[in-house]
Amino acid sequence: MSITDPFWDKAARKYNASKIGNVPAYERTLDHTRAYLTPDANVLEIGCGTASTALLLAPDVAAYTASDISTEMVEIGREKARAAGIDNLRNLHATLGDPQIGPGPYDAVLGFNLLHLMPDVESAARQVHALLKPGGMFISKTACLSGWRGLLRVPIAGMRLFGKAPWVTFMSTEVLESHIRAAGFEIVESFDPSGSPMGHFVAARRL
Questions:
Q1: For a tag site, which of 4, 19, 52, 177 has the least CB within 10 Å?
Q2: What is the DSSP letter of 81?
Q3: pLDDT tens digit sequence for 35-73
Q4: pLDDT tens track for 93-117
Q5: Which domain, by its residues, includes 84?
Q6: Is there a domain that residue 1 lies in?
Q7: Number of helices and strands (H, E) in the chain?
Q8: Beta-carbon neighbour count of residue 80 at 10 Å?
């Protein structure tokens, strides 16, 4: 069983109740993601939170596995899936490298608002690569914190000491994309749905 994350466990209910800040950008992200999915696809989402996005995308594919490191997030996601009557969606308490995710292969792996929360982005991308079929898609949206946003390092580090913030990796869109390429992917699309690098969308194909 995956370890859990106390920060996200504590934040789960509040996170689930929060509203989407930029609905048009979120819908653009969904539309661009759906363009790479097929009705017979087997899809894995890592860092799914309370499965809000999984519930919207699962009807478009054959099988959808939504995983998260937070036990509370996963339980909320399971409640929502049962209420929605979606039977091709399974919610797992797991993260990359956990055996219950399985060796794959998956047709697509999704990671929304996730990579900047991982200490080693290139290693995470390599793990995703290993889970995909040849030609499979890695689709992500990432907060790219560079330039003046680097000033947030100090306050975030202080908040982490008191359990008030998660780990955050600071990187530019260029660095993010270089990590993904180095892990064995060809980037076929990248853009900022909201016009800001705080939500940088990347669709990458496994070579």
A1: 19
A2: H
A3: 999 999 999 999 999 999 999 999 999 999 999 999 999
A4: 999 989 989 888 999 999 999 999 9
A5: 6-206
A6: no
A7: 7, 7
A8: 18
